[in-house]
Write a structure and sequence with these properties.
single chain, 58 residues, alpha+beta, Ribosomal Protein L30, Chain: A, 2 helices
Length: 58
């Protein structure tokens, strides 16, 4: 299965609770930390919802 690299570039504080929950669901915790997630439709939906907070790489 392919992977996507995600880096949080903006803070989660002051964001909508739903957006904070998406970040938590993806496993993103700290700014400037990079994680890899599987490229599934569920993860894509969460990434699209908070794409303004993330740097996305394939």
């Amino acid at each position: 299965m392919s992977k996507i690299k995600l880096t949080l570039i903006k803070s989660l504080s002051g964001r909508l609770k739903a957006h904070q929950a998406c970040a938590k669901g993806l496993g993103i915790k700290k700014i400037h930390k990079t994680i890899e997630v599987n490229d599934t439709p569920e993860n894509r939906g969460m990434i699209n919802k908070i794409n303004y907070l993330l740097k996305i790489e394939k």
